[in-house]
Amino acid sequence: MKRTQFAAGLLLALCALLVFAQSLWAQGTQLQNRSLMLSNALAAATSRYKFSLQMPGMDTVQTIVFQICANDPFPESPCTPPAGLDASQAVLLSQSGEMGFVMSPQTTTNQIVIMRPPLAASQQLSTYEFDGVRNPDAEGSYYVRVLTYQDGNLSGVPSYTGGIAYAINMDISIRATVPPYLLMCVGVTITGYDCNNVQGDYVNFGELSSRITSQGTSQILAASNAISGYSIYVGGTTMTSGNNVIPALTGASPVQTGTGQFGINLRANSAPQGGQDVSGTGFGLPTASYNQINKFAFNPGDAIAVTTQPDEARKYTVTYVVNVPAGQAPGVYVSTMSYVALGTF
Amino acid sequence: MLALTLTSVILSTQGKLKIKQPHNLMNTFKQRIQRPLSVLMTLGMLFAMSPTAVVLAAGAGGQVQFRSIKMSDSGVSGGAITTGVGSGTNVSYRVTFTSATAYTLKGIVIDFCSGTGGTPFIEDANCPAPAGFTVGATPTIDTSAYTDNTTSTPVAYSSLGAGWTASSLNSGQTFTMSDSTGVGVTAGTAYSFAINGVTNTSELGTFYARLITYTSDTAPAAYTHATPGSYQDYGGFALSTAYVIQVTAKVQETLTFCVSGSTTPPPGAPTSPTSCTPTGNLVVPAITLGHGTNNTLDTSAVDTGSVFTITSTNALNGVAIRMQNSNACGGLSIDAGVTCAIPAANAGAATPGAITAGTAAFGMHCNDSTNADLVLSVGAITCDTNYNDGTLSHYAMDTSSVDNVKTLYGDRVAYSTSPVNLLINKYDFAATAASITPAGIYTANLAMIATGTF
User: Fold this and answer.
1) Which of A27, A141, A179, B439 is such that its CA lies 20 to 30 A from the CA of B71?
2) Cα separations in angstroms, B346 against B330, B352, B353, B358, B396
3) Chain A contacts of B449, Cβ < 8 Å?
4) Whether B453 and A33 lie within 8 Å, measured CB to CB
5) Is the complex ipTM more than 0.90?
6) For the whole model, what pTM was predicted?
7) pLDDT digit string (tens) for A43-78?
8) Which CATH number fits domain B65-240: 2.60.40, 2.40.170, 3.40.630, 2.60.120?
């Protein structure tokens, strides 16, 4: 009988204590202007957590607890730790307002605890920024229970409490494909910078003479969005007529009448007068051997123009020069020039 | 003798005495003489023993009927609630009674007794003060006519007139009011007055009050529990303090925020995503900007695509939606943000501008919120002017402000200043390529982060 009475009394006392405790929780004054700003809201990402809050009174504050739960923000109810959340490695990066806090060893996977010597609160807006918090594994809403204590062992009733809700969500993924292109066209003339305006594919030097340098021009238009630019190579042979050959200038050399020479360059020349420098917006330039005024060369397979980055339309004018000696065998001398552009994407 | 006499005494419910003639067959002279003597002696003894005997000597009237004291607050004083209803402070006691007799009323006493050891009986010395109770040193009163509208049929009470002076005795336990002129009351007429500013007892449960009226305006000042003096009418009351019903309602902080690539339900989803749940209704927010057969970006057009956010929160100070670009260069990149060959629109300025086809740029236009639900949607989420200047074709990707899309916590793109529910914001992303935009697959991951301030 006595045991029954004792048990009943104990149960009654526990119930009363529970009710009393509940009422005490409810009496805790609510923290104001509470918010949590994340630097990364992706599931399972490591993020910075920046809390803002304002003490509603001047009670002593020694400890602040940020408890993160999956179920609700109410301090009096059991907390379900969010799956995947890990705040155990949190580092206090910065603080403002109520200051002087350091990380407490009472920090756990779902609870960040900071402490300082007991001081009265000043009711100013405070921020606490933590790094190294791993977000929960799943998208959705989560809750922070913020509690302040007057002591360092988290005992008793918190002075101030407040809840925060925050969301973990997907990023927006944006993708765009820019297709590669390499534009090149060749003609005797190209009006403007449009390959639709190409005209001619035949350069006629007329009758070669040992007293004057024969010359002609053609044009190349090139553009590309190749990230490393493009190179234009020249192919073909020097001018020949059957077994008779006009020698090519293997090194950049000036013209010399009366000497068998065949060469090209991509500049505006004065001797002989003719040719044009490269034009158009961009960066492409003739290579060294073909970029010297009044000097010409021809080595099949040479790169005659290069750019190392994407380039808008550039127009190159190729000047061809031919000299023959007096004893040059008669005939129709012909050469077929081919140009190849190679983009490096 | 006393025992014999007591059998003939009937104690009234009001504590007064009525005497019945004892039935006796003895008929001797002595007996005839002795019986009245003994009755008189007994009566005298009873008068001497009982305080109520004074009633017969001092009370000329009767018990007031239909008496009540209505309290404006039944909470005990000195509890957790210190102001307002439930505090037991600044309480009004509305006293109503129907006069038993007709006379000129010049004084009233209401004496309050503890429920522990006290009684409502007039002239009973047992009247300890209710703990914590006081009517105040100089109580305020309201003696004007009163109509009780809390009953099914309104009940009108007559005024006691002006000119009354209220006071108290016994450290506020006993209320008194007097008027040298007085007011003529008539039998059967209901009167009322209120005592304001009373502090209830701190004792939980029943306590008592005694009402005594006087035809003298000086008698109330001489009142004591046991010797109330010569009074007219009287009546007892039982009152009670009670636990105050404390209603506590908790509203949980909420923030529901999600991003969807479309408001058109994905295949298999039952309904359009108008809320963040079920998540199966949401469309992964992956946009490919481009056009043509291969859905590519070039110089001929400005290509656009949209995503949506759905937001609900009860944050008192509203919600801010911030955008953060994963590319440190702020635009679209083929090398994880090291370089952005498709740069931020309008040179990354904080103001939106047009994107011209062929001039590589990447930007966003934010649209103010629309309601996801015709009934349940509440509030508005407004876009920052950085991302909405009123022109739909103007885009921005702010990389120059103090807080911009490249900073740690991103750039605020939309906000509310109060709680919102089920609001959809649409974000239009746009890009175009230039002729020298290096070929490749350009990407950016944009984080939309909602922060509620509770």
Assistant:
1) A27
2) 12, 7, 6, 14, 6
3) 37-38, 40-41, 169
4) yes
5) no
6) 0.74
7) 999 999 999 999 999 999 999 999 999 999 999 899
8) 2.60.40
pLDDT digits (tens, 9 = 90+) for B365-387: 999 999 998 899 999 999 999 99
d(CA B202, CA A34): 39
**Looking at chain A from residue 73 to 132, which residues have their Cβ under 8 Å from any Cβ of chain B?**
73-74
CA distances from B8 to A325, B40, B45, B431 (A): 172, 13, 14, 112
Domain hosting A213: range is 182-343
Beta bridge partners of residue B140, listed in sequence order:
B196
CA-to-CA separations, A48 to A43, A89, A114, B64, in angstroms, rounded: 13, 11, 16, 76
Nearest CA in chain B to A54: B454
pLDDT of B408 higher than 90: yes
Q: Which residue has the tokens 């973990």?
A: A168
Which two three-digit tokens encode residue B221?
């000042």
Task: Locate B262 and state its tokens.
Answer: 């479309």
Residue B260 pLDDT greater than 60, yes or no: yes
Q: Which amino acid is at B55?
A: V
> Does B278 sit behind a cis peptide bond, omega within 30 degrees of 0 on the bond before it?
yes
B373 interfaces chain A, CB cutoff of 8 Å: no
| B102 neighbors B173 (Cβ within 8 angstroms) | no
Tell me whether residues A176 and B298 touch, CB distance under 8 A. Answer: no
Q: DSSP character for B396?
A: B
Q: Is the peptide bond before A272 cis (omega within 30 degrees of 0)?
A: yes
Alpha-carbon distance of B56 to B234, in angstroms, equals 12
Chain A residues within 8 A of B290 when measuring between CB atoms: 176-177
Question: In this structure, are A238 and A152 located in the same domain?
Answer: no
CATH number of the domain to which A189 belongs: 2.60.40
User: Do residue A138 and residue A249 come from a single domain?
Assistant: no
Which tops the pLDDT comparison, A25 or B434?
B434
